[in-house]
Amino acid sequence: MKNLQGALYPWRFRVAIGLLLLMVAAIVWRIVDLHVIDHDFLQEQGDARSVRYIPIPAHRGQITDRNGEPLAVSTPVATLWANPKELVLEREKWPTLAHALGQTSEALSARLEQMADKEFIYLVRGLTPEQGEAVMAVVKANKIPGVYSIEEFRRFYPAGDVTAHVVGFTDVDDHGREGVELSYDGWLAGVAGKRQVLKDRRGHLIRDLQVTRNAKAGKTLTLSIDLRLQYLANRELRNAIIENGAKAGSLVILDVRTGEILAMVNQPTYNPNNRRDMLPEMMRNRAMIDVFEPGSTMKPLSMSAALETGRWKPTDTVEVYPGTLQIGRYTIRDVSKTEGPVLDLTGILIRSSNVGMSKVAFDIGGQAIYSVMQKVGLGQDTGLGFPGERVGNLPNYRDWRKAETATLSYGYGLSVTAVQLAHAYAALANNGQTVPLTMIRADNPPKGSQAIPEQVAKTIQGMLQQVVEAPNGVYRAQVPGYHVAGKSGTARKAQVGTKGYTENAYRSLFTGFGPMSNPRFVVAVVIDEPSKAGYFGGLVSAPVFSKVMSGTLRLMNIPPDNLQATPQQTANAAPDKGGRG
C-alpha cells in the first residue's frame, strides 16, 4: 500500500507543476501580447478612464444692418458649474460659496442636497469674465472642491427693442429662438471645437493635452434693414399708437427695385436684452404674422384689373348716386359723401367709393380681380422664411357671384399681412414688376416678373398721386418737397371664430410710394384699433406715412421733385373729406 501511494505522488506532483507552468506561460504571453503585439489596448483603456474631451464654444456670427451697424453680437461670459459629489464633502464651505455667487446659503444648500448624487450642476451662467474670476479666486482661496469655470458666449442686441421683432433672440444655450436668429441659426451658430485633457478619478484637471478640433465661428449675416430707417419708423409708429390710443400697429418700408425690406417695426415691442417681464403678445412680429382684411387699399389693384381688360379707361364714369347699392340682402355703402351722381375711375379712388368700385367689378368679373391680386403675391408665401409667417387668404370661386365680386374689389373677404400689402404696392410702384422679397442685403437684386402691364401700372401711379394731391384727397399723406402716391383704407375687425365683425373695432391703413419722378420706396402703415381722434385710414395712418416717407427720402438722399410746393400751400389744402376708405 505504501509503495502504491509513493508511485502516485510523483505523478500528481508533475501534473501540478505542469499546470503552474501553463498558467505562467499564459500570463507571460498575455503580457507580451498587451505590451508588444497589441500595445494600443492598455493605452486605450487608460485613456478611457482619464482622458476627457472638453467642448470649445464657437463664437456666434454677428448680425448687422445693411451698413454694417451691429444688431446682434456675442460677448464672452463665464459659467460656473460644480460636481455635487465633491461639494458634499465640504458642507461647511457652502455659505462661503453662496456669498461669492451672490446667492442665499439656504437656496444653494437646497440645490446641492437635491443633486447630491449627480456629477454636474450649473451654479450660475452668464457672468462677466471679471465676475467669474472673482468667484474662482474665492473658491481657490478657501479650497472649495468641485467648483469649475467654463467660457461661453452671451448674445447682446445693441438696438434693443427697435429691431427685436426682426432679429429675434437666442436662448441660454445660444440657440436661435425667434426672428432671424432662428431662421438663420445654422448660418450663425458655427461649430464647437474639442480640447483633450487628462483628469484624475475625481475629475480634477491634471494636464491640458491638445486641441483636437478648433472651434469654427459662425458667419456674419448682413440684413437688408437700414438701422436709421428702423429708428425712424419705430419712433413714428410708437408716437401714433400713443396719440390715437391704439392697441397695436405695424410699419414696413420696402425698396421697390430690389425687394429689400429696409425697415419693419411693430408696437408693442420688447427688449431682447431683458426678457424677464416680457408678455407673449409683445413677441409677435405682427407685420408678418397678423392677417387682416385690407379694405380700400385693394381698390388700386381692382382698378388695375379693370384697365388691363381694356374695357375701362381713367376718364370713364360710373353712377354712384345715392351712395348705396343693394345686392340681395346685402347693402353696399359709401362712407364719404359724393359730389354729384357720377365719378370717373380716379374719382372712385379719391372718394374711395365702394359703390363705384363694385359696379366696375361687376363688369370685369371677380376672376380678373383675383388674377391681379394673385400675381402681386397676395395669398402666397413671401419666401422670406420667417418663423411663424402667415400667407393670408385669397379666395377663388368657380362661380363668382355679385357679393363675392364686390367685396373682393374693395378689400373684404380676403386677408393679408402688412408685408404682403407693401409687396403688392411695390409692384404698382415698379411699373408693374414684382421682385421677390428679401431680408438679406441684395448686392445682386433678382430679376422681377411682369405682374401688371407697364402702362396700366403707370396709369395707376398717376391716379394714386391724385388720391394724395387732389383737393379732396388725403392731404395728410402729402410730403413737402416730393410728389407721392398712395391709398388709405379702413377695415372692420372680424370676430374670432365667427363670421361677423367686432363692434367699433377697426384697422386704419395707408400704403403709398414715392417719389413719383422715380418711385423707390413703399411705406405700409397699419394701426390696430385707434380709439381717440377717429379711425379712418386717411386720418390716423396717413400722417404716419407722411412723416416716415419724408424721413426716408431725405435719409436716402433722394432729390426733391416738387420744390414748388410750399408748406403754406400744404396747410391751405382742402379738408380731408375723402380718402377714408
From TrEMBL:
Q: Which SUPFAM superfamilies match?
A: beta-lactamase/transpeptidase-like, Penicillin binding protein dimerisation domain
The protein's Enzyme Commission number: 3.4.16.4
Q: Which GO terms describe its biological process?
A: cell wall organization; division septum assembly; FtsZ-dependent cytokinesis; peptidoglycan biosynthetic process; proteolysis; regulation of cell shape
Give me the Gene Ontology terms describing cellular component.
plasma membrane
Q: In which pathway does it act?
A: Cell wall biogenesis; peptidoglycan biosynthesis
For the region Disordered, give the residue spans: 559-581
Question: Enzyme group, top EC level?
Answer: hydrolase
Locate the active site.
Answer: 296
What residue ranges carry the coiled-coil annotation? none
Residues crossing the lipid bilayer are 12-32
Keyword Plastid listed: no
User: Which residue intervals are annotated with compositional bias (Low complexity) in the record?
Assistant: 564-575
Q: Which UniProt keywords apply?
A: Carboxypeptidase, Cell cycle, Cell division, Cell inner membrane, Cell membrane, Cell shape, Cell wall biogenesis/degradation, Glycosyltransferase, Hydrolase, Membrane, Peptidoglycan synthesis, Protease, Septation, Transferase, Transmembrane, Transmembrane helix
Q: GO terms for molecular function, please?
A: penicillin binding; peptidoglycan glycosyltransferase activity; serine-type D-Ala-D-Ala carboxypeptidase activity
- Domain (Penicillin-binding protein transpeptidase): give its ranges: 249-549
Keyword Transcription regulation attached: no
Task: Name its cellular compartments.
Answer: Cell inner membrane; Membrane
Task: Domain (Penicillin-binding protein dimerisation): give its ranges.
Answer: 55-208
Q: Which reactions fall under this protein's catalytic activity?
A: Preferential cleavage: (Ac)2-L-Lys-D-Ala-|-D-Ala. Also transpeptidation of peptidyl-alanyl moieties that are N-acyl substituents of D-alanine
What role does it play?
Catalyzes cross-linking of the peptidoglycan cell wall at the division septum.
Membership in a protein family: Belongs to the transpeptidase family. FtsI subfamily.
Please identify the protein, giving its name as recorded.
Peptidoglycan D,D-transpeptidase FtsI
